[in-house]
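User: quick one, sequence for these C-alpha cells?
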C-alpha cells in the first residue's frame, strides 16, 4: 500500500484523507493542535458550546455529495435543520428578514422596493444557472490550466467574468438595503463585491435558493462525521504533532519530520496554510517568493468573541448581520487602506436560538465576528475597546441591555490565527477569490518543484469556505489517483 502523509486536519485534509484511504492508500494525518478540525474546532465552557470558526452551513448538496461518494448520507452522522428565518439584517432604520423560501424573500423585497421581487426572481434564475455551471463544471477542475475555464457554458457568459457583482446588483436594484443584502453572500469569497466577478452570483442562489442550514450540535458535527468516516476507512490521526519539515530527496518528497522523528511516505499533502507549508521545505524547493505572498489579496481576518449570556435575549435570530454603518467604508478599511474599522459592521450568531444543546437552559451562546484586515496590530486593549463598541451597538439595535447578563467572554483574533494555525498575516478565510486569483491563477494544488508533494485547502483551488475545502480535498486526491 502506498503511504500518504497529510499535514493538518481541517476540512480539506479530512476530505482528501477519506478519498485516498477509500482508494486503498495508507493515510496518516499529523495535526499540530490537540483536536482535529482546524479553523472549525469548538470551544466548550460552563455548559456552552461555540463553533470557533464557520457557522453558516450553505450548499447542502456539496456535503451530501461528499458523504454519498462513500455510500453514506449526512443523516447517517448528523441532523440537519433548515433555518427559518435564514437570517436577519439590522440596518440603521429597518430590519430585513430573509425567510426560508423565495416567496417569503420576495415579499420582504417588495416591502422595501415596489417591483423589486420580479427583478429578484430573474436575478436568482440567472444565479441558479451559474451555480449549476460553477459546481458541476468549473469548480471540479484542478486549476492546472486556463483552458479548464473554457466550456461552452462559460464562453457564453464570458462578460460575467469581467463585470462585477456590484455592477449587476446595482443595475437591478436601487434601495441601498437591498443592494447590501444581495452583496452579502459574495463576502464569503473574501473580496469586495466591486472586485468580485458577477459570475459569482451563484452565491446568491446558494443563499436564497438553497437556504441556510444548521447541523444539530454545531458545525463541528461535520468534522466529527468526517473523522469518523476517515477512521472507518483506515486513516490514522496524530494530534499534538506539528510538522517541522517536509523532507525531499533528489526532488522527490520522502516524508516529514515531527517531534524530531522522521516519518516516510510516497506522497505528502499539506492542508496547512500554503505559505507556512512552503516554509517547511528547503529554500530551493519553495515555489512562491515572499513578494508573491505579499502582493496577494487575502480574505479578511476576524476579531471574534464567544460570549455566554445568563438569559434568553430578545429580537434576535440564529444568524444576525449588523449592517447599520457604512458598508463601503468598512470594506475600504479591510482591503484598500488596512486599519481597525472606524464603524465596524459585524455578525452575531446565536445557535442556542434554534438548538437547545448549544447553551444551558434559559441561556444564550453568542458568537460575535468583526471582519478586519489581516496583519493588523492585535492587543488586549484593542479587543476590549471593540467589544464595548459591538455590545453597545448590539444592545441599541436589538432594544435591550445585555451587559449584566454576560457570564464570560473569550476572544480570538490575528495573533491567535497565527499562533494556532500558522496563518499568513492571521488571515481567517485564506486567499480572496478575485478575477486575478481564480482557478489556475491561485497557488497550485501540485508542487512544480517537488515530485509527489501536493497542497490543499482554502489558499489553493477552488477557494475559501467549507464547501470549497471539501472540493479542494477531492481535487488533490484525483490528481494523485490519476498519476497512479
Ligand atoms: C471565523 C471564521 C468563520 C468562518 N465562517 C465560515 C462559514 O460560516 N461558512 C463557511 O463555509 N466557511 C467559513 N469559514 C471558512 C472555513 O472555515 C475555512 O475555509 C475552512 O475551514 C478551511 O479549511 P482548511 O482545510 O483549508 O484549513 P484549516 O481549517 O485552517 O486547517 C489547517 C490545519 O493545519 C494545521 N496545521 C498548521 N500548521 C501545521 C503544521 N506545521 N503541522 C501540522 N498541522 C498544521 C492547523 O492547525 C489546522 O488544523 C470561516 C472561517 C473562520 C476562521
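Assistant:
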Amino acid at each position: 500500500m502506498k503511504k500518504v502523509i497529510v499535514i493538518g486536519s481541517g476540512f480539506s485534509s479530512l476530505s482528501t484523507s477519506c478519498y485516498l484511504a477509500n482508494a486503498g492508500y495508507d493515510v496518516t494525518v499529523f495535526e499540530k493542535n490537540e483536536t482535529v478540525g482546524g479553523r472549525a474546532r469548538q470551544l466548550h465552557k460552563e455548559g456552552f458550546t461555540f463553533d470557533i470558526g464557520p457557522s453558516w452551513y450553505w450548499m447542502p448538496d456539496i456535503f451530501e455529495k461528499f458523504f454519498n461518494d462513500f455510500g453514506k448520507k449526512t443523516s447517517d452522522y448528523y441532523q440537519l435543520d433548515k433555518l427559518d428565518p435564514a437570517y436577519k439584517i439590522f440596518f440603521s432604520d429597518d430590519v430585513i428578514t430573509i425567510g426560508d423560501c423565495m416567496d417569503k424573500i420576495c415579499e420582504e423585497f417588495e416591502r422595501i422596493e415596489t417591483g423589486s421581487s420580479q427583478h429578484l426572481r430573474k436575478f436568482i434564475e440567472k444565479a441558479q444557472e451559474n451555480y449549476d455551471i460553477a459546481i458541476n463544471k468549473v469548480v471540479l477542475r484542478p486549476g492546472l490550466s486556463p483552458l479548464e475555464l473554457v466550456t461552452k457554458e462559460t464562453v457564453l457568459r464570458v462578460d460575467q467574468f469581467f463585470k462585477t457583482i456590484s455592477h449587476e446588483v446595482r443595475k437591478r436594484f436601487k434601495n441601498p438595503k437591498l443592494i447590501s443584502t444581495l452583496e452579502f453572500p459574495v463576502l464569503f469569497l473574501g473580496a469586495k463585491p466591486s472586485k468580485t466577478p458577477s459570475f459569482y452570483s451563484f452565491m446568491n442562489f446558494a443563499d436564497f435558493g438553497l437556504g441556510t442550514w444548521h447541523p444539530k450540535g454545531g458545525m463541528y458535527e461535520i468534522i466529527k462525521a468526517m473523522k469518523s468516516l476517515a477512521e472507518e476507512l483506515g486513516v490514522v490521526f496524530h494530534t499534538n504533532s506539528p510538522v517541522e519539515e517536509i523532507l525531499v530527496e533528489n526532488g522527490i518528497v520522502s516524508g516529514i519530520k515531527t517531534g524530531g522523528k522522521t516519518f516516510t511516505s510516497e506522497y505528502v499533502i499539506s492542508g496547512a496554510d500554503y505559505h507556512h507549508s512552503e516554509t517547511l521545505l528547503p529554500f530551493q524547493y519553495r515555489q512562491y517568493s515572499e513578494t508573491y505572498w505579499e502582493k496577494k489579496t487575502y480574505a479578511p481576518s476576524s476579531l471574534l468573541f464567544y460570549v455566554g449570556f445568563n438569559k434568553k435575549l430578545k429580537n434576535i435570530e440564529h444568524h444576525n448581520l449588523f449592517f447599520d454603518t457604512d458598508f463601503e467604508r468598512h470594506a475600504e478599511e479591510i482591503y484598500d487602506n488596512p486599519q481597525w474599522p472606524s464603524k465596524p459592521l459585524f455578525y452575531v450568531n446565536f445557535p442556542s436560538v434554534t438548538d437547545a444543546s448549544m447553551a444551558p437552559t434559559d441561556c444564550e451562546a453568542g458568537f460575535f465576528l468583526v471582519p478586519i484586515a489581516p496583519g493588523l496590530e492585535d492587543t488586549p486593549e484593542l479587543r476590549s475597546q471593540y467589544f464595548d463598541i459591538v455590545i453597545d451597538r448590539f444592545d441599541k439595535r436589538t432594544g435591550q441591555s445585555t451587559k449584566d447578563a454576560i457570564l464570560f467572554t473569550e476572544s480570538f483574533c490575528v495573533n491567535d490565527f497565527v499562533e494556532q494555525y500558522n496563518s499568513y498575516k492571521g488571515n481567517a478565510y485564506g486567499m480572496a477569490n478575485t478575477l486575478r486569483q481564480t482557478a489556475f491563477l491561485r497557488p497550485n494544488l501540485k508542487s512544480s518543484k517537488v515530485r509527489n508533494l501536493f497542497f490543499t485547502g482554502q489558499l489553493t483551488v477552488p477557494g475559501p469556505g467549507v464547501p470549497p475545502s471539501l472540493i479542494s480535498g477531492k481535487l488533490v486526491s484525483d490528481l494523485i489517483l490519476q498519476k497512479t
